Amino acid sequence: MSEDEATPASRQPVALVPRCTDREYEADALAERRAFIEAHTGAHLAHVGAYSIPSRAMRGNIENALGAVQVPLGAAGPLLVRGEHAAGTFYVPMATTEGALVRSYERGMVALTRSGGASARLFLDENRVAPIFTFASLESATSFTRRLPEWLPALRAQAESTTHHGRLLHVDPFLLGRRVIVSFSYATGDASGMNMIVKATDRACRWLASQCDAQGYQVFSGHSSEKRASGVLLAGGKGKKVCAAARLPRGTVRAVLGALPEDIAAVCQNSVLGHLQAGALGFNAHLANGLTAIYIACGQDVANVANACVGITQIEVVEGDLEASVTLPSLTLATVGGGTALGTAGECLAMLGCLGAGQAPRLAEIVAAALLAGELSMAAAIASGDFVLAHETYGRNPPPAQRS
Amino acid sequence: MSEDEATPASRQPVALVPRCTDREYEADALAERRAFIEAHTGAHLAHVGAYSIPSRAMRGNIENALGAVQVPLGAAGPLLVRGEHAAGTFYVPMATTEGALVRSYERGMVALTRSGGASARLFLDENRVAPIFTFASLESATSFTRRLPEWLPALRAQAESTTHHGRLLHVDPFLLGRRVIVSFSYATGDASGMNMIVKATDRACRWLASQCDAQGYQVFSGHSSEKRASGVLLAGGKGKKVCAAARLPRGTVRAVLGALPEDIAAVCQNSVLGHLQAGALGFNAHLANGLTAIYIACGQDVANVANACVGITQIEVVEGDLEASVTLPSLTLATVGGGTALGTAGECLAMLGCLGAGQAPRLAEIVAAALLAGELSMAAAIASGDFVLAHETYGRNPPPAQRS
Amino acid sequence: MSEDEATPASRQPVALVPRCTDREYEADALAERRAFIEAHTGAHLAHVGAYSIPSRAMRGNIENALGAVQVPLGAAGPLLVRGEHAAGTFYVPMATTEGALVRSYERGMVALTRSGGASARLFLDENRVAPIFTFASLESATSFTRRLPEWLPALRAQAESTTHHGRLLHVDPFLLGRRVIVSFSYATGDASGMNMIVKATDRACRWLASQCDAQGYQVFSGHSSEKRASGVLLAGGKGKKVCAAARLPRGTVRAVLGALPEDIAAVCQNSVLGHLQAGALGFNAHLANGLTAIYIACGQDVANVANACVGITQIEVVEGDLEASVTLPSLTLATVGGGTALGTAGECLAMLGCLGAGQAPRLAEIVAAALLAGELSMAAAIASGDFVLAHETYGRNPPPAQRS
Amino acid sequence: MSEDEATPASRQPVALVPRCTDREYEADALAERRAFIEAHTGAHLAHVGAYSIPSRAMRGNIENALGAVQVPLGAAGPLLVRGEHAAGTFYVPMATTEGALVRSYERGMVALTRSGGASARLFLDENRVAPIFTFASLESATSFTRRLPEWLPALRAQAESTTHHGRLLHVDPFLLGRRVIVSFSYATGDASGMNMIVKATDRACRWLASQCDAQGYQVFSGHSSEKRASGVLLAGGKGKKVCAAARLPRGTVRAVLGALPEDIAAVCQNSVLGHLQAGALGFNAHLANGLTAIYIACGQDVANVANACVGITQIEVVEGDLEASVTLPSLTLATVGGGTALGTAGECLAMLGCLGAGQAPRLAEIVAAALLAGELSMAAAIASGDFVLAHETYGRNPPPAQRS
Lengths: 404, 404, 404, 404
Fold this sequence. Notes:
The structure is a homotetramer of 404-residue chains.
Chain A: H1 27-41, H2 46-49, E1 65-83, E2 87-95, H3 101-114, E3 118-129, E4 132-134, H4 138-160, E5 167-176, E6 179-187, H5 194-211, E7 216-218, E8 239-248, H6 250-257, H7 261-278, H8 287-297, H9 305-308, E9 312-318, E10 321-331, H10 344-351, H11 360-384, H12 386-394
Parallel strand pairs in A: 1-3
Antiparallel strand pairs in A: 1-2, 3-6, 3-8, 4-6, 4-7, 5-6, 8-10, 9-10
């Protein structure tokens, strides 16, 4: 570390958040850390300390744990879903601080339910990691690319040796000069499965590197678009591809959504121009709003909103009725693992009958139907000019006196 | 509602979540709704009901309130920031259920702090709404577009008549055949300000429509890219444009991040290829991860992750050291309004000294520096091969026995 | 060149195409080069040698000149244009080898002309170069960015000292960590002007570098998107922003285009989905086809098709009629300089009354109207199912016996 | 046509370009049309009439033929290519009016040749059409999507019944609510094949529509990105995927390209930022320039530049040398059909030994190597500051006196 000597800052003591080794997730360790933060920052962490979920259960989900934040939870519904995995009427948990959001989604859900419900179909279900290999030359990279199909069985054996749940479905190479990106696609069951498939892919790559003349590989190339928006997500690959659709009778649209089908469809036509002019990926009204609220409620990896909200909404008039759909090509979801079982998350998943193994496809169909409701409600609010009014009514905080 | 008669589903009674009018935000109303949900879904909402923030304070943030969800909170730091608005050492609140995330950001923060801290600069601060006007002809649309500059003072007066805080900075037309998208850009102070500027813009548009021969306008065209990713965000416009940067001495990089500068920079080079091949917007390792965790902790509008995580990370070797930066062109942030004052959110903002009026620029600089830490730590983990190991160590949930 | 000694290939004699110094553009020099190529490749260059344009006139347009290629030229029209710069009926020269293309554009032009013509409006006219400056730190880069407005007059003086025709309109900085892209926007008159504005910008940058602590600059950053497609082009900047639009009566649509307005509009609706799914920039049927044919005919810089064909087509039904427009935000065009005066190019520009100074705005309006015709015709052909038939009829080469 | 009666313009006589039925491609018909155009426009079409290619041979390539335009042709080389289909030294025909372009590509070719040549590899070769099917409901669309694999053999039989040369390789569905885009991928031999595969796909779709409950289909959805830029092209599909790469010794780089490897690589690093900031597709210096010049020379469908120039260039320093590659994922090329055999085009293809059946893979490798040369030369010109100077030297037109 002699290079550091010229850098005085590096010798200054750095006050780490207390580790409390061996009792990291005990309540008193959390208290000790809160005290440390309060001492260093002047903040008072009373609410943060008022968590009800057992602190030991946080292991694997957080480090340097202080407690928990509380996000207001509302329920939107009823939402009648006619899926292959989800069939019935649901009340959807949404955690948000954006006033009017729950009311808006509820309105769309009532419109769908009165129209006979939303169909939902899960079409593709795979998650991807895309390592990149470097070779000395284009010739070597080409030869590797051409041999890849014959290595698939061995790759599958290597990858699946690290996991009980993940299955390697296919590998797809993208030759780029002397480099090759190899996209590994997996079935991951009910888990989001990123850690699982990264580990499996790393194992497979280590084997692969031993079979060829690669100079090296890097397990992430960025191509799989985990936690970011990209065009490739539109073709599916980061989780579940699911659609929801419905036909809403003209009278229901007018009565519940307060606008004519033609006007709602015109909103979408105009918005296509805005999306094109902006260079947007996909097309939608506000998929991210509902998705984020459900993700926070249900203990999902919320940062996946960045990739999962890339989708395509369609709203059109058919024989005077309103025909609408959402397509979510890369919806990341889990009903096991991650934060899914933790306290309130488990309760919210239970509200949807989606807690535990085997429930991820059901959750995907419900989410798609819920987001369809939000798209309809937003488009109708723009069409009718209600948008500003609704936010005036529901988006107002109480006077400070009531907020303590 | 006579059109509905042909649609039997629409006559079925729909069981709405209890409104509890006049006592919507009283604790017993929340309890009544929980009971309703429990009765309809079979879920048990004990943790959801164990909130500590006063239910009355939720008004304006949620409808059909049931209680609150709890998200584990950790603190990462110390993070030395050398900004114009934020100068000092910070501990950053992060709410997540993704194991290893807080530890990874902490490592990056330590590396930055030992390197003398991260510089941060706020460069642009405006929020946008982009209505679209329709005309009978290209001729009318062109004439409107050309006259727009002369209307600016009146538009400003109209827009600002609806708000104490927002200021209309400029309007920019995009002519598209017989339609014109007009992007309104505002300074919104310390609030995220979407509701404020939509209301102001709607007022201005109503006036504008009275001055010209527009057939109509729609207050949202989608061009402003609220809650979605698009190319136009890279030029700024959805909130704050902020950069953080640092030069990390070679020895510190090696000691704290466990990899050589050259190897970390090579990770980024390879990842550019993955981003290009995927058609990604911007370039980054995992900006969405840290941003989401801070957003949830600090009561932000979390769905803004969809737009705010579009950014550009640069990591390169300069004279043997590591030079790194993040540029966040459209970072949405608030220190007043929305969910910022609610219980845990207020406490988390207080941890950063960022609660209340005048603090949004400071928060922006801290967030940029924190995300820079995460980019460095992730790139180093990929370079060193630590990524899989770290997730094995920190991403493991406890056995079920400990989780109840 | 001693490093080369280890590389035997580098010592092999390399047979350059004959320079014929001092008589490079004389007919006998071209003949000598053709003989050289014939000797080295076995090709027979009779048609290449059968050019009628004076070889001396090729100076400044080509090096290692052999002669000229011949591209079949057709005329499509009549096209009635109602622009501000172009008003009247035109016959548009199109050079192509794609059978059915001229006939298809002609059909659209007849439909427009019978409908009273196409409106056309030029809205923005500027060309850009975007150098990138590198600094030692984010602090320096920020300070540079903030001072840029005060340097504008001096930059203008520097830039305009190198040209009689270009005027520097504005400069726009994009801060990216310790680098700053500065987009220079110019009015370039009737020339495409790239060489002119690169030279002017280089001069201005040299001066700028002397005023600040930049480590260096690079005159091209790629941001201006010369000769490539990018989202930023949609907001204008690579030449002229021009729209053409028309309302076609229902009967004319049916009679001339052979399809109903509703069916043509539906083709566009479906195609929006294809564009979204593909991650396309802009939206159009085949702008590149007509644009390329006109560019080749008129001696334009044909490679600009890559940027100029990024545009947005709208086709919709209004009161039973068909309302259509094209918006070309970055149309590069010239009526002086480059290849515009060379033999056939000058003749083709003369067909449009667009040869020489002052004619570029007129050419832009005609081109936009012509491309609108092609969009309508293609959409109608898809709607009616004619597409395959038309290509069977017009896209068939004669039997080989007739082709010598 | 009674609807037209209210539209006086539609009754005006429209003067079509003379058809000259039964002698459309005879020399006197072309002369008659030139006379018509001269009479209507005042242009003098002497050079246009001075074509040497037989007018009868233009059938299938142009309608309303007037003659031909002449584009100056130069040769760049020598270019040593080490491909699987192209091995040897080539002189590349380039038709352009952009001064300095041929000289610049020539410089890159000399650098490659002195470095032992450019490797080239063809990796994928398929062309696509993507029709879109509409169904009454999501349920029907899903069921169609799931059954598609079983229909493949029948689809192949239908499609291939219309062509001797095209082979249907695979079909890939993209479900979007109640619509399904089906991408048909074909091998098209040495033709560009668009007309061929559209016809085949139309036949297959007609059969498919008879097997399912589709409401209809449209043969183009825009997804295949013919003649436009889109992200999906990066994964291949519009023709040939081909890479060229080379390692240039440090000394050769310095001697021939006039810049140090480090400086050339730095140009690319900076340019990545410009591309990201612009929201560009792919990454390159000026692929479109060389591609367009070769396309015009060789009788290609030049409008394909819009899709074919989406590619990725890599330039980096390896052990002091310069390592460079270009990847062209969707390169459209033909050596038979279209304009390939017409007069000068056939001669230019013959210069490369690429005229006729079986030569398209060879042409693809040569084109990739040629474009690599141009990327290197441009990056070097930026690095050394030569760019402005080169255009001063080669981009100057002669005084008007010499241009008649």
